[in-house]
Amino acid sequence: MKNYAIGLYEKAIPKNMDWEGKLNCAKECGYDFLEISIDETEEKLSRLDWTKGQRMDMLQLMKKTDLPIRSMCLSGHRKYPFGSSDSLIRKRSLEIMEKAIEFADDLGIRIIQLAGYDVYYEEGTAESERFFRENLAKASDMAATKGILLGFETMETEFMNTTRKAMHYVNFIDSPYLGVYPDSGNLTNAAHSYGSSVLEDMETGRGHLIAVHLKETVPGKFREIPFMTGHVDFEAVIGKAWELGVRRYVTEMWDVGKDTWKEDILFANKSMSRILEQQN
């Protein structure tokens, strides 16, 4: 058995490709699993309402292609955050969380990556932070019931752009089902802004990092930067993550309409796998 697993973020593949095509693409490009996106669009959120038949069809596709979906990027909370001042939005945030956990349980997904926002489209306050903590506790209890791991993504905003900030909430909730699923690019941009160390920040999550997003960035830009063209030190990040016990990684990238999209996916896998294979 290989001593690490590398997954592909769904949005790296053209949106109009069907599920069998997406799974085959990830397989052909050398990945071990696919990370499904449940973002804030109604199209993606509606996946959480798939029927039992649709879920069974997906399980059959995973078996047919020999490529599983094993993690979920749940960014839908950006629109429906735990900390919203609107009680109806907070209620919706917990409904999404419950559905996501049930969806993960049905499909064999092990990890749900949570967006590290108390709120996004409104101003954060002491009250939004309190609501966030209260609803995070409820989400962690839901996850514990199904044995699903929740991991905070370190984001591009001040609220939770470092491992240290994410650990504040991990320690507060104190659940074995809540950890940190950091983003290498966002950590690097935060360290650049603060004049701090990415590796020292990762160390603050010792014992609580459950996976790592491998993503390229440049100062001030957080998306759609081709691998190995930015300022993320992937060798250092992977080396530190490995030391901290992380064995699951996902290359996060986006299809931006280039003809070379598949070559870009292959390059991401090859360049990151080369570093992973050097770890002991």
Please tell me how large the radius of gyration is.
18 Å
Q: Trace the largest sheet across and list its strands.
A: 6-5-4-3-2-1-8-7
Structure summary, number of beta strands:
8
Biggest sheet details: 8 strands, parallel
Unreliable stretches, pLDDT < 50, 5 or more residues? none
Averaged pLDDT, please?
Answer: 97
N to C succession of SSEs: EHEHHEHEHEHEHHEHEH
Q: Helix fraction?
A: 40-55%
Give the overall form: globular
User: Structural class per helix/strand content?
Assistant: alpha/beta
Strand content: 5-15%
Give the termini separation.
14 Å
Count of helix runs: 10
Short description:
The protein has 280 residues and is an alpha/beta fold. It has 10 helices and 8 strands.
How would you characterize the overall build of this protein?
Strands 6-5-4-3-2-1-8-7 form an eight-stranded parallel sheet, with helices on one face. The protein is α/β, with parallel strands linked by helices and 280 residues long. The protein is built from ten helices and eight strands. α4 runs parallel beside α5. 44% of the residues lie in helices and 13% in strands.
